[in-house]
Fold:
Amino acid sequence: MFDLTSYLETRRARIESALENYLAGGGQRWTPRIQAAMGYCLLSGGKRLRPALCLAAAEAVRGRADDVMPAACAIEMIHTYSLIHDDLPAMDNDDFRRGRATCHIAFGEAVAVLTGDALLTLAFEVLADPRNFHGRNDLSAERWIDAIGQIAAASGYRGMIEGQARDIAFEGRAIGLDQLKEMHALKTGKLIQAAVCCGAMLGGGSGESIRHLAVYGENIGLAFQVVDDLLNVQGDPGKLGKAVGTDATRGKTTYPSLIGTHDSRAYAAHLIDNALKALAVFDKNADPLRAMARYVLERQR
Ligand code: IPE
Ligand code: IPE
Ligand code: MG
Ligand code: MG
Structure:
C-alpha cells in the first residue's frame, strides 16, 4: 500500500533544502531586508503540493525527480509570490498565512510587493540556469525552453493573473457557475497543471503521456480550489494556518455559496474521479499522483 504521508515528507524535505540553497545562493550582500522577507515567506511551512506534483509527474514517466527540481522550486517560488500579493490589503487583505503573520504585516506593504516581485523573478533565473540542461541532449534544452514558456503563460495574464483580476472584479457581484469555474481554473488550476505537465516534460515523457497528465492536472487544479472554498467555510484555522469565513465577508462567490457545501464536495469528488481516469494508462510509477489526487479531496489544510 502506497504511503503518501512518508512520500510527501521526504519530498518536502528535499524541496525545502533546494529552496534554501537557491535563497542562500544570492549571498548576503544585497538587500538583506528583501532576502529576510523572501526566506520568511518561502521557508514557512507551505504544503509544497505543486513542487511535489512536479516531481511525481517526472516519476510517473520514469524520469528522475532531481532533474526537474529546479522547475519544481521555481513553481513554488511563483506560488509563494502569488500568496504574498493575494494577501495584500489591495487584494484579500489577510493578516495570517502559513500559520504566521502575512508578509505585509511582518515587513510592511512596500517590502511585501517587492518580495513577491523578487520571488517571481528569481523563479525565472532558476529556470534559465544552463546547468539545468548542461551536458544533456538537445531535446532536454528544447524541453526546458518549452517548460519555461508554459510556466510563464500559466502564471501570467492568460493564467493566474487573469484569474486573480477576475476574483477581485467579481467581489460583491453575482456571477454564474461557468464564470466561477473559469476564474478558479485560471487563478489556481493553470499553475497546478503546469507543475504536472512540466514535471512530465522535463522527465522525458512522451507527447501522449503529457496529454493524459494535462487532463489530470486540469482536474486536480480545479478541485484544489473548490476544496479551498470549502475549507474557507468548514475548515479549522489552526490546521489551515489561515483565517476562515473570509470569502463570505468579502462578498466572494464560491462553490459553497453558489451550490452549497454538499454539492461542492460532490463536484470536487467528480473532478478527482476524472483525474484518476486520466491516469489509467500509467503503471504503479503513477501511484504518487493517484494518492495526491485523493489527498486534494480529503485534505484538512
Ligand atoms: C493556497 O494554496 C492558495 C490557493 C491557490 C488555493 P496552498 O493551499 O497550496 O497553500 P500552501 O502553499 O500550502 O501554503
Ligand atoms: C489564491 O486564491 C489564489 C492565488 C494566490 C493565485 P484564494 O485567495 O482563494 O486563496 P487563499 O484562501 O487566500 O489561500
Ligand atoms: Mg484571493
Ligand atoms: Mg486569498
Summary: The first strand starts at residue 96 and ends at 97. The pocket of magnesium ion (ligand 3) is lined by residues 86, 92, 167 (CB under 6 Å). The chain has a mean pLDDT of 95.
